[in-house]
Amino acid sequence: MTKFIIDNGAYSAKWGCSTDESPKLTPNYLTKSKNARETYVGSELDECKDFSGLFYQLPFQKGMLVNWDLERQVWNQIFKKSAIDLAQTQLIVTEPIFNFSHTQECLEELVFEELGLDGLIRINAPNLTAYKYLKNNSKDFCLVVDSGYSFTHIAPFYRGNIILEGIRRINMGGKHLTNYLKEIISYRQLMVMDETYVINQVKEELCYVSTDFELDMKIAKLKGKENRITRDYVLPDFANLCKGFAKSQQESTGIPLDSEQIIRLNNERFSIPELLFHPSDIGLNEMGISEAIVHSVESLSEEIRSDLYENIVLMGGNAKFSGFNQRVFNDVRCLIPSKYKLNVSTENDCLGCAWQGGKKLAENETEFNELIVSRKTYEEFGHSICKKKFDIIN
Q: Tell me: the pLDDT tens digits for 333-364?
């Protein structure tokens, strides 16, 4: 029997068999080219020659799966590439925390009735990350910070079980950062409001989390070589250059060479990710990540706070920003009493850590078999048996 894992993120799906060393990544959306003549499903986007003005169609909206027609196309592509026998496959798939019951039922119908898979475990991504962390480190408690495309979740765990009253959600994620960067560049330099794909690459290559915001702002105001922050990004022309690239600090003069078209980033490099820690900068009445971590832990029993502060785990696409781990540590350290020890760790693969947790679960036959709902059981009891089993872990 094949065990297959899909970490079904709002921006990318991480997938593969439990026997694989690492997951494969597929864009979890459809894109249309500028002339709207070609549509690319998931990883078909690799075949695109011109990434300018791409139009996105996402199955997820505000972190929740709302368009099953689009999701079905992406999943069909994933299963076609994996070349597995669906009737002999058991699936571990992730869902958002506090997912809607109707969405859960649709997922189960797709898995059992349309695709005909043999079994299902429906679980949230932070739970799988916590499972892997607790098993690897022989711990009872951990606090998972999942900062992804649409939102950021803070979720405490005890022996693999989520502590519901400690969950916090911040409606700030990677798409907000990309959209804000588009606005800033369009206002200051060049109209790029339709260039989501390109500006997302700019963000990923050049942006970082500041560990000393005031100092970085002072440096950003300096001129010439004293300013170590300003960098140039060469935009693709999709003729001679299909993918843009960031110039080194020495090469970043602000003067384009030959036919180059450049974007020059200065304080935007660190002020954009700063939104994760101060969403109020763009008018969102939300806590920042560090504040939400403390708010989550302090809402729980005093007896377990020390264990949670010592086992904070960062995951998700935004955890890849340089300086993210250190910034969370610095901020939380300032907000909590000195009597608490603090440890903040980042998974080696921030995007694939939930998938790796699923792989570890699949390798534990006893726990896997306790959680799995088979197609035969589903046909007999329907959604009620899935709700009974999966609500315990979610």
A: 999 999 999 999 998 888 999 999 999 999 99
